[in-house]
């Protein structure tokens, strides 16, 4: 059964106190609330249970909520805004949420929510254990805005809005519906994070490749030394190059071979051995085998053809 509350029938002088008590009892979070308008206060609240989660639709005139104490129920709050402008402060971040945006924050940490044009939002209070069981990387979801215009953002918004329209559900069905919504949300956040992560990976890859080119003549280079000199683990290093379809050492050997080929074609060094050693090869048998496999001719044949 949906519970509905409103300040409409409360006398003006008591409305804000009534609202503060209602908010605290609903979200189990003692907040300090502040009116942002000198006009009369008005607010409405709809509450329904979906298994272990609480779904509310909250509307009010301009207001600010400040929570300085952890939520006794240790819930994650997933919000869908319908107001023009909302501002959340948490974890040293200031996040702006517009109409149609989803924002997730942690009720166990201090926060403040600022609604300068009035509050109008869906708030889902979800048990942390349920949230974490469906969100693969919570640190990339909590305190991050999901725009309706983002990939899969519109689908997530529609799903949240649709769930809010459904009547109250018992634990089994309700938890399944919230779980489906969280799975969709996880995919939506993953979609907006992927370009950023790819960009960072590309920057790291470029940095390592430049390092290898600058140190190509160092025959002692190994996977471990390359990783250490670039402040990453060997596993991370391999992952960077795996996206290019190779490994760090294979890429290095290929660059060495390319440099040797150009040097031999331009007669930069007096001998093949000097050429190979100048670009990091320390074993001529290894060099000769790789050169023949790569170019189809031996280094000696290439030099003779050039002449």
From TrEMBL:
Pfam families: AraC_binding_2 (PF14525), HTH_18 (PF12833)
Record domain HTH araC/xylS-type: where: 206-305
Domain of life: Bacteria
Protein keywords: DNA-binding, Transcription, Transcription regulation
SMART domains referenced in this protein's UniProt entry, alphabetically: HTH_ARAC
Record-level Gene Ontology MF annotations: DNA-binding transcription factor activity; sequence-specific DNA binding
The protein's name in its UniProt record: Helix-turn-helix domain-containing protein
Organism: Vibrio eleionomae
């Amino acid at each position: 059964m949906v519970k509905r509350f409103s300040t409409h029938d409360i006398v003006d002088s008591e409305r804000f106190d009534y609202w503060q008590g209602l908010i605290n009892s609903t979200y189990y979070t003692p907040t300090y609330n502040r009116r942002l308008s000198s006009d009369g206060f008005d607010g409405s609240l709809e509450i329904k249970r979906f298994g272990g989660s609480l779904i509310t639709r909250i509307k009010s005139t301009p207001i600010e909520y400040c929570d300085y104490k952890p939520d006794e129920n240790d819930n994650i709050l997933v919000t869908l805004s319908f107001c023009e402008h909302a501002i959340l402060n948490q974890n040293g971040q200031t996040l702006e949420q517009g109409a149609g945006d989803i924002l997730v924050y942690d009720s166990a940490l201090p926060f403040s929510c600022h609604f300068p044009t009035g509050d109008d939002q869906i708030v889902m209070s979800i048990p942390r254990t349920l949230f974490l069981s469906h969100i693969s990387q919570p640190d990339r979801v909590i305190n991050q805005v999901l725009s309706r215009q983002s990939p899969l953002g519109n689908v997530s918004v529609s799903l949240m809005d649709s769930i809010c329209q459904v009547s109250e559900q018992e634990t089994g069905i309700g938890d399944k519906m919230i779980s489906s919504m969280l799975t969709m949300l996880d995919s939506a956040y993953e979609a907006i994070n992927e370009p950023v992560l790819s960009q960072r990976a590309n920057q790291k890859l470029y940095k390592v490749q430049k390092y290898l080119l600058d140190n190509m003549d160092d025959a002692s280079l190994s996977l471990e030394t390359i990783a250490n000199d670039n402040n990453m683990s060997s596993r991370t290093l391999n992952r960077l190059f795996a996206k290019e379809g190779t490994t760090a050492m294979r890429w290095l050997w290929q660059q060495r071979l390319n440099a040797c080929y150009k040097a031999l074609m331009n007669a930069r060094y007096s001998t093949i051995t000097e050429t190979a050693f100048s670009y990091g090869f320390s074993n001529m048998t290894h060099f000769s085998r790789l050169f023949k496999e790569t170019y189809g001719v031996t280094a000696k044949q290439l030099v003779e053809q050039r002449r």
